[in-house]
Queue: 3 jobs
Job 1
Amino acid sequence: MISAPEPSTQFHTDADRTTADEPRRAAVRKALGNYKVARGKTESAFTSWEHARDAAAAIKYEGVNHLDKYLREFEEKFTARGGKVFWASNSAQAREYILGLARERGVKSIVKSKAMTSEEIHLNDALEKEGYAVVESDLGEFIQQLMHEPPYHFVFPCMHLKREEISALFERELGSAKTDSPEELTMIARRFMRRHYIDADMGISGGNFIVAETGMISITENEGNARLTTALPKIHVALIGIEKMVPKLADLALLLPMLATAGTGQHLTCYNSMYGGPRQPGELDGPEEFHVVLLDNHRTRLLADPEQRDALHCIRCGACLNVCPIFKNIGGHAYGTTYQGPIGSVITPHFRGLQDWKHLSGASSLCGACTEACPVKIDIHHHLLHNRRNAVQEQKVWWERLIWFGYVELMKRPWAFKIAMRLAPLGQKLHALVLGTRLDPVGAWTKTRAFPQAAAQSFHDYWQERKAARK
Amino acid sequence: MNGDRAALLARVTEALRVPAPLHHEKPSKPATHSVTAPFREWLPPVGASPAEQVALFAKQSEVLRTEFLECPSPEAAAQHLGKLAQGHGWKRLAMHRGRLADTVAASLPGSLELLRIDGGYEKNALEACDAGLTECESLVAQTGSVCVTARSSGGRALSVLPPHHIVIASRGQMVPDLAAAYEHLAGKYGATYPSFISFISGPSRTGDIERILVLGAHGPKKLTVLLMP
């Protein structure tokens, strides 16, 4: 058995490979260029996008900073309408509950709409291992499921694939005819999925917002697959992170248009649906049971860090990925995380261990495009710096400390500094001997960049010389 | 069984002991409405008069590829549906009972078979229908959206399972924005909201393949909104 590589090794290997894949990068760049244009247009229709951001941040701040109160309120309202709430501290508890439910109710087939939380807890693997057929109904997720690959981007799961690849995949997996029309490919998936909505006895969804005031969850989608998943099967299970809280139903009047604008550049996503309980008396359809699984899975660890707590405001619009120069070049898979891009680099170390995932904080140019694009004003790029600082404070690196110690001692003594400057050109001559070999002490730098030339004369010496000449 | 409730809530409370700094400005204007919304004025502008709102809804419909038509009477609406039925070769139309829906249904051509789902329905039968006709709660001018609920629009599936969704609305149902749509729902239902509320903005769509827009991903391929006086 081959053991999995360290996350940072995997990251560096994958990033090197994906960055060299020029055609793929061009395709991603083109898609994200179109996003930028669409978003700019929609954003400018707002009377004031900047004020709207403040208002949106205020709503999420209130929800997250009084989370205990609002979770209780949600539970009370939701259960009063016949819903069931399950509180899961970790992924094992969430998986066990959903599996137990499927076993108890004699479920045979399960249809799923997009839920990043289910990627997070590896729900499909667990269900399939127990013999349940699970079908992803979102087109992008369905394609990724057939590819046996995780999503590339948490909003656009298969943005890295070209139509020829998808056509070949469908030919192989579904026996459909070859086509180069995205429309025809979509229709193949549509026809395939229809049966599943009707036959499935359990529908699993995620959720974009939890509404405390009315005991509802809200789901945003374009395709209608979540609506079908939550309308036809007799059991509906929604798996949702506790941080998705908003206090009032009317808060969605702001957050839904902002999610759409920042996420895809639409004024409003095609379907924004709020679900408050299973089928109620007097209603003619809908599931008999509605279970909401509230997932912690280390979110409380992030909550306990006031400095970075606002990272829990995230509404998963994906805007920070779309504008990130790193994401554009290395792509989504290199991160090796459920949540990719800048926000993923901020939250993953909290969810899965700082020392194992601290390298993601370095995968940033600190340009701040992510922070600027964020509709709920998360201080993303500063949090990357905070993670770097925390990682070093938590576990000091001996050779880094040694270098800093030497540097400080050197800088305190002008005479030593002067000698070091004189020796630099000589040192560089010696460096040339090991350049490109494993002995190169700055190999990480010189592998992709030229090392700057030390000047033959220091600025200090030059200044003294000039002064002397003037006299 | 509700899982790790006590432990999870205790962790949340413990985590929140130290307050977090603000990264945003406090909203500068006080709330002007009872249910909403200190933020209303930051969203895209909407005209105050009904005529402006209908015009904006029509403009947004065009962007969303919704077919939007003002009909002077139920007969005119039925006539348009007759044309659609003929043009697309519809055989069966699913619908629910309702004041507006019934007046239109009364003038539909007899050749069109109607599936009334108020007493329940067989999933396969509904799936086999060519179109689904529903009423709605409100029409949202700002975004060109139709607000449907389980109570007002024939449950959850009628407006999403058949390939063509037809909405019958009256002019009085036009509201300026989402905030107003929520106010209307709060006023109408109080604490007993329907179990399903949805804002529908255009026919079902996807951009998952090369970010190219395709209509009719899993839900309706077409959306028609008929507005009566």
Job 2
Amino acid sequence: MSNSGKYLKIFAFSYLVFLYAPSLLLPIFSFNKSQVIAFPLTGFSFQWFETLLYQDSLHQALKNSLIVAISSCILATILGTLASRATTRYDFKGKQVSLTFILAPLILPEIIVGVSLLIVLIQLGITLNVWSVILGHTLLLTPFSIIIMNSAFNNLDISLEEASMDLGENQFGTFYRVILPLVLPGIIASLLIGFTLSLDEFIIAFFLTGTDTTLPVYIWSQFRFPKKLPTTMALGTILLIVSLILLSLSEYFRRRTSRSNNSILEE
Amino acid sequence: MGGTLNFSIKTETIKGWRLLSVPFIFSLLLLAAPLTMMFLLSFWTQDYLTLDKTFTLNNYIEAATQPVYRLLFTRSLLISLTATFFTVALAFPMAYFISFHCGERKALWLFLITIPFWTSYLIRMFLWKVILGYNGVLNSFLLWLEMITEPVTFLLYNANAVVLALTHGWAPFAILPIFVSLEKIDRSLLEASKDLGDSPIDQFFRIILPLSAPGVIGAALIIFIPTVGDYITPKLVGGTDGLMIANMIQVQFSKANNAPLAAALSMSSLMIVSFISIVFVLFNKKYLRRY
């Protein structure tokens, strides 16, 4: 047992190196002086981060991405909360089928979702802009929101709701004053994860973006210019740090849902 | 009594649907309607900008008979299946290590595994191009170490590079479901089988592997279905020998201006993927029942 455990440990650490190798290159080469992405390193420099400050098309793309990410994470969280509340609280006909259908974008190849949406928008003669991307992203993010909200609603004690109704609150009051505060950390986690996923999403945005380029579509266009590589690496480093912060926050809130609900039950 | 029961079922249905209808209608409008539209379009013909709406199977016939599409379908499936196999094969021992050998530090290891995947997919796939390229990180590193005298070219722009990048990119989607299914295994089963004389190898094949099968099957599907339609990876690291069906769908849709053919190719890949997935699940159901 201990021998096989030793081999497993060696495997686990080498696998971890493989998993980290590409991402570690981002910070290394974004601070490297040379314009060529290759070893040996030539020296430390902030110049690639500086050039990011003077690129107007990048700033426009960032603005579009923020509009898309904020709108679609809010819309998806509303839809996800409704779907999750309906399916965790009530039992009814057609529940499983419709839920599976709403969750389908989670596994469908994105190119199929993107192309089919584009076909409809073109047939209807709708101009592509940030709104078409927002709708596409909302469709994509709703399943993630449902999964997060499911764990928040499943941790909810139904007797709290019944107590509130017995004490004279109506349904709206019960939802607003009892349920909402308890699932709020879940809602925040869903917003943060949705925001991060939307900020990173490329395929749907690539098809539906029209002239309102989002950040990943901008990055894709930069890949063609070898001279701009270090700048793109610097941008990638910033994005990685932003994602790390946002997802750590969402993990913190997601854990708080289960903890706060458990502590109420213990009292 | 029966009346109140009926009544409560009725109110549950009303209350449930009142909430679920909004997201459901949204999905109908943005997923079902577009897929139906794409299905219809695949039976039409496009002549530059005008759409001929007479029913025809020509697009599907073209998709099935033209060598280039057959090649792309086969290659997409092969790349995706190979990548799925390697991802799951590497993820299993990792998940096993975390579940059985990490004790208190399980959460830390899971956290360590997910961090690299917080870089955007686009940039991660691009980084593989940076690593494997002619003047890339790996070549320059090996030259620097004087292990090679000139850069090697077989690393980038082929199907193997796509498989490697996918195996890296989808790792957490395999590790996490397999880990969850391993966590669910009742540890007393292992003690019992050990007491009854099973060797560790017996234990692995008779208890751990069959009981973790749902996680393995889930992981395989989660990776196989989306990667068949991956656009980014083959475009960045595949070269011409590593292009896949999604790249052709995009070309037909934009540059070639043949949306109906793009629709037929999309529908065909969706059908092929669904067929393989269903067969895979059925095959494994039978396999599972033996235990």
Job 3
Amino acid sequence: MRIIVHKAKCQGHARCSAQAPDVFKLDDEGYILPGDIEVAEGEQRLASRGARSCPERALELDRTPAARG
Amino acid sequence: MAINPVPDHVPSEMVRDFSLFTSPGMAPTPNGDPHAAVACVHAGPPIFYSPCNTRGGRGTWVITRARDQRRVLQDTETFSSHRSIFSSALGENWPMIPLELDPPAHGVFRSLLNPLLSPKRVMVLEPAVRERAITLIDRIAASGTSCDVMKDFAFPFTVSIFLRLLGLPDHRLDTFVGWAKDLLHGDDVKRPAAARTIVAFIDELATKRRKEPVDDFMTFIVQAQVGGRRLTEEEVRGIGVLVFVAGLDTVAAAIGFGLAYLARNLKDQELLRREPDRIMLAAEELLRAYPTVQIIRVATKDIDFEGAPIRKGDYVSCATMIANRDPAEFECPNTVDLAREENRHAAFGYGPHRCLGSHLARREIVIGLEEWLARIPAFRIKKATAPITSGGHVFGLENLILDWS
């Protein structure tokens, strides 16, 4: 699973990293670091919860076969 | 309250008799539920015009859907937050910073302040926050089997954390709570008087810290630089006043509404007491169900929004308590589900002005609930008492007498 990060939409709610701190890394101001995220096998549930709690809808789950690969 | 006539460009069929200030359930009400009272707008259109929806009696457009509020609050070019809401009460015109600045000026100040209240910084503050909660609750537990949560815990707790952040001594706590109450809930005489007192206090504190710097928030502000220069006195004041106003009432109300819910729902209360790991997620759900703030923007240009002819200068209301009960965004929005996972709630707003203090507020709420549940046995609303709730610009709870005898 991959998470597409729409960095410009991030407003620093930090809901994602509260759910999955190892998946979603923040900068010193508390905003998400740029770049899409490849999620490791064991972290998918938490990562998906984190992405789905973003109030700005800045995190998009990509479950296409290529992303799963 | 002066009521402005509905502007000519507003079609009469888009006007509705609804207001966060004057609708049923918005005035101080024993055992009220102002959040449920406003949720009724979801039976109606996604946007309508309310002729009297600010404290001063101005009309606003009301955006009901979470999706549309997100669009308004993310689009700062069309929907400005520059209103001088505080200073205009004094007949002046300066912005609270960063809230009442628009990008790009907003970003400069926001970046300056973000690290002071970032998730990382809040982790450093956590032990002091927890210690404060424990001290207060232990004192309550030792002195009986009943208390007024607002007076004895929620206000002293949140205000003292805030005083510590600003580097101010605890003994002034009652004074600050008094100013905040007058400012947010006082009448037309008390409000401007409190505003003047707060401005004078912030100005004096800034002068003191300029002369004798210490390791605190205000010293940081007076020493900070933006674009290679020190901040002006007006900018320092704008920041100080915002931190003061934003930090005082809202978190206390959130803790009060949360504990009131748990006092009335003993199964949920017992679940959280037995499994405290659930509190973090539960706190998000309580923030969703009982948020406190109405956000207002000003249109910078004419725009047709979901069929509504918004014209330059119109006020646009994005009430968090309305977005958070949107059935298109939340399954069963009027049911409190403490295990709700998909919870993109708007308690701290959307867009670049997302509440700067949200991370600290969250920690205070979670720690407050954790320590309360760990130290106070099964509690209910005390018989023959009734929590008094109110609507308005900031939803509030005047009292919450709990009993665990």
